[in-house]
Structure formats: structure tokens, C-alpha cells
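Task 17 of the worksheet. Students: predict the tertiary structure of the chain below and write it out as C-alpha cells. Keep your answer in the requested format; marks are given for formatting as well as content.
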Amino acid sequence: MLIERLIVGSLQTNCYLLGCKDTKKIVIIDPGSEGSKIISKIKELNLIPQFILLTHGHEDHIGAVNKLKKLYQIPIYIHKNDNEMLLHNNITTDTFLKDKDIIELGNLKLEIIHLPGHTAGSIGVKCQDIVFSGDTLFKNGIGRTDLPGGSYIDIMNSIKNKLLILPNSIIIFPGHGEKTTIEMEKKYNTLLK
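Model answer:
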């Protein structure tokens, strides 16, 4: 497995390139802005983008989508509950994701976990021993729930019933900030007590 993190935009959004080392096929997760920076990294590593996957529809996670879609001629995946946000930004979705969907990427399998709370259509992406959690779970934090479509009750349910039940060794790659593990968040994240 290949993982590259690029920090983009004024809100320091994590854009991830997740790929299969054998085939060089990648998914671009949350290209929030700075499309040229993302394209440079893809070129530098000789990667082959297959699709763009959005953990949710907030502007700081979707800013470079149209530029990348146009250049690479690849589809956009998002949960249908967040599609309205893309439409407001003149972005057309190609595939709607739902809980437990499996997407193949080279020799990798990506499992979609629906995580409503930060937005109604927030998702996580599990691949082997890692989860890309979007803005649902952070190192020592949780996502905001005061924006349209947000719900504190929903985000806590998503975290406790869909993420914290995963093995302690699972590594969490969040939408902002540094990575963490399920074990660390169970132990030290005071917002989950």
C-alpha cells in the first residue's frame, strides 16, 4: 500500500493519495485545493489516478475536484447525502457511495463506512489496517457538528458504534491534523468519555 499526505489550503486539509504499490493505481481522497501541488506529487511518483473519493462535501475538501477530474478524466465518488454541496459548487458526482460498499483499487479493497454527524453524508474509508476518517474523528478531537447537516448525537454514534469497535491497532488518517490510532483515541480523547 502507498499513502501520501498533502496538506492543502488555508484550513490545512489533508488530501491523501492512496494506492496499490504493484499497479501504481491510486485514489485521490479529499483534494481540498492546490490542484497543481497534488498533480505535481502524482507526476513525481508516476501514479495513475482512478477516481476521486470525497469523505464529505465541505468546501475545504472539494476545491480541486473539477481541476483533477478534467485533467485525469476520472469519476467522483461521494455519499448521496452530501451531493447537494457538490451541486452548489458546480461539481457533478459520478457514483454515490453507501455503507459497506467495497471498491477495488489495484490489489487493494476499500470499504466504505457511513459516518453521519459532521455532515449527513460523511464517510470513512477502511483499507487493511487504516481508516481515512474525514472530519469525523481527529487526534484528540471530533468533527464540528454546528454546520448545516451536522448532528452531535449522530457523530458520537458514528464514532462509538462504527470506529471505536475496530481493532485498537487501526491507524486513523483524519481530514485535518496528524494520524492517530483507535487505541490512542479510546485512551486519551476526552471528548469520547
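Marker's comment: The first strand starts at residue 2 and ends at 8. The chain has one domain: 2-192.
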